[in-house]
Amino acid sequence: MTDILCNWLNEELKISQRTDPTTFEKDFASGYLIGEVLNKYQLQNDFDKFSQSKTSDSKLNNFTRIEPTLHLLAIPIDTNLARAIMTETHGVATRLMYQLYVALNNKKKSNLTGVAMETMRPAAPAKLNAVESEIYKDRLKHMTPRQSELELQEVVQKFHEKQMEMEKVAFRERFLEQERIREQQQKERRLLMERSRAMKLKQSEMVARIQAATVEIPKPPPQKTVQAMEARAAGRRRKIAEDTVRAIGDFEEKMKMTLPPAKDEDDEGIGMEYILARDDEKSHTELTDMIKPRSNDEYIGKIRKRLQEDSSARAEREKRRRKVIVDQIKAHASQEEAHREEMLVNRLMRQSQQERRIAVQLLQTRHEKEVIRSNRIQREQMYEERRRKDFEDAMNRESEMARLAKLEYTEQTRKDKELHDQIAAERAEAKYRKHYESCQGVMDQILDFACKVAEYKELTNGLVPAKLLRDWRAQFEAGIPLYDKVKVVEAATVTPEQVLEEERLNLLDEGDFMEYKTMVGEWQPPEASGLEKPPRDNPIVGHVVQRLLNMVYPPSTPPPPPEFSPFPIRACVLGKAFAGKSVCIRSIAKDHRLQLLDVDYLVNEAIEASKNGEIMTGCLGQCDVAESNPSQNVSKQKTDR
Predict the structure, then answer these.
(1) Helix (H, G, I), strand (E, B) or coil at 79
(2) Which pTM was predicted?
(3) For the segment 437-472, what is each residue's pLDDT rounded down to a tens digit?
(4) Both 534 and 622 in a single domain?
(5) Closest to 23 measured CA to CA, from 101, 88, 99
(6) Contact in structure between 589 and 638 (CB atoms under 8 Å)
(7) What range defines the domain where residue 526 resides?
């Protein structure tokens, strides 16, 4: 079906844009091609107002204009269908164009124009379609988002995609960094384990050496007497001292073999020999003293003193021994370090030229990676700055569009308010006119009734027939006028023929009056009356008649002159709003040639004159206006207060 439609559009109609089945929905999304197809069949007279743009405003304009034409072709369309075509929903545009294809072919077969189809359509469905079109426009306008919102969504979507990509890159880099840190930690852990294992091995070797150097003394069998115990203790101390001296001597011999001789070590060896010799002399003196018989207290005191000296000497020897061991360990560690450095230097010296080249390449690669990394960081910063600037520009553009929309809305609101005020004023004026005409009609009927009664009373000498009075009252109560209304022809509607007819009637009336005055024609008196011509005017008789009238009806004495100078009559009309003051004042001013003043108008006129740069020159008791434009006339208006 899409191929058939594409062939019809491209080959038969030859529209401006060539359609393809793959991009069919996208081509018809704006509604421009639909309007062009309708224009080909002379159904879309306002095709010059269509827009080819892809913006939401252009789509709204195009689909609003094609809706009445589709209703004329009996093709159903609503806001959901239009919105689906705008959003390029699959299959919707194809189905609508197929319906349009069938409807246009039927129109072509029937050989009817758009005007003929519009004329043949019944009035009720046409009116219903007009109402539906208004509803369709409003709903489609509310459903179609603004172009600024779509652009903002695109910007937000673009930044969201950028953010997702950056998050993925950051996650990948963070994962790689964690993997690298984990591998580094594993390497360091293995190195620490190897070092700890080596240290433990060294410590175990050192402990084994110390244990090998330690001499265990077997315990003698227990004795019962105190002398035996003292003898065993003295022999044990002597043996410990000999073993210690022997061990220290062996240790010093070993140290002399492993380390070069030093001055302080010789002094220390001399000090140690002196201490050992002093201990031997002291033990010999003690042994000789023990042979001499003395008291027990002195003997016990010597034992205690000797024990204290032995413990202090033992502590000193232990300190010296520890110091010697620590020095030996440090010397061994320094020796091992020197050996390791020597091996490392030998290994580095044994590296080949290829290894040196590889090392240089690795260093160069590391430097390039560092440069790439710094450039990437700088480029990311530039991208971030650009994104932030684009976002700020988009927000500024959106705020400017919102400000313009707000100004447009304010202007539209002001116009709507002015229209509302105008309609309200017209409605109030119509209501006032209605009430005024109603009251005027009642007053006219009352005046007609009174005039009718007064006229008949004057004619019948105050005797009006009761039946006639009842008839007039019935007509008055029924609202039927007692006099026939005289049609007043306005000057603006008088034609030259009517003016000529009026002049002719005036001429005939003047001729009739002259015939009556000269007593000719039908006013000629009969021969038996003895009158041949009208009597002449007699001024004497007129004077006599005037004197008689003055005597019968003497004229009233004129009022005394006022004490102050004459002045024009001034009046101020007060009353409630909408009481009819303005109408009454206009009527009185028209009949009696009064000059009306309107305070509001005069104040506004003075303000306008001040704005126009006019100046006022004053005089005693009177002010004149000097205008900047001499040809401009200041008109005075009425006042209703």
Answers:
(1) helix
(2) 0.30
(3) 888 888 888 888 888 888 888 777 777 777 778 788
(4) no
(5) 88
(6) yes
(7) 508-552
Q: Any long-range contacts for 226-229 (C-beta under 8 Å, 24+ apart)? A: none
- What is the pLDDT, as a whole number, of residue 189? 85
Residues 628 and 517 in one domain: no
Euclidean distance between the first and final Cα of the chain, in Å?
81
Report CA-CA distances (Å) from 214 to 73, 246, 280, 310. Answer: 120, 11, 22, 19
Higher confidence at residue 465 or residue 568?
Answer: 465
Q: Which residues touch 627 (CB under 8 Å, ≥6 apart)? A: 609, 614, 634
Domain co-membership, 134 together with 13: yes
Cβ count near 97 (within 10 Å) = 23
Q: Which of 159, 182, 177 shows the shortest CA–CA distance to 373?
A: 177
Return the closest-CA partner of residue 72 out of 99, 37, 48, 43: 43
* 3-class state of residue 578 by DSSP: coil
Binned at pLDDT 50, 70 and 90, residue 432 comes out as very high
Last residue of a domain, one of 297, 321, 349: 349
- With respect to residue 341, please indicate whether it lies within any of the assigned structural domains: yes
Return the residue matching tokens 């369709």: 136
CA distances from 376 to 361, 371, 380, 398 (A): 22, 8, 6, 32
